[in-house]
Amino acid sequence: MATEITTPASGTLAPGINGRYHKVALNVFMLIVLAHWAEHVAQAIQIYALGWKLPDARGVLGVPFPWLVTSEWMHYGYALIMLIGLIVLRKGFTGRARTWWTISLVIQVWHHFEHLFLLFQKVSGIHLLGKPVPTSILQLVIPRVELHLFYNAVVFAPMLVAVILHLRPRPEERAKMQCTCATPVSTSA
Description:
Blueprint: H1 22-48, H2 59-62, H3 67-70, H4 72-90, H5 95-124, H6 144-167, H7 171-176
Helix pairs in contact: 1-6, 4-5, 5-6
């Protein structure tokens, strides 16, 4: 049996990603999100619990690979992957879960814009308000480490609520689901 591939005009290139492959795609996406989130938490621990100086606090992967922390291209790439993942996987959610997933998506649109703005500054050499380094809009009031920890928290929190609701849907939400993500309904009395 061949997998049907539709055109972009129909709304998706691979209908299975929100159907029979939704569980796998969602798990892979959430693993990527959690790994990135863990990097930000590790960096915060290095600064606030271990007392490391800001240039030395680079998360887990940033210690052996310092360019990861300073690369605006890498940060923008991750923001873009997050945005694409939230858009592509959204159709697999129903009801309350879809509402929470959409909240995460809306917040990520802004987060993506901030990273695009930082990348533009890096490439052009024109920095916001003449700052010596690329600076995001909210970074004018919140330091960068704390701001990105905040951004990742406010994108992740509604995403987590969405996933929990998606795994445990109400009967009417389950009836509309095209995937197998939901936990099986218990038939024991």
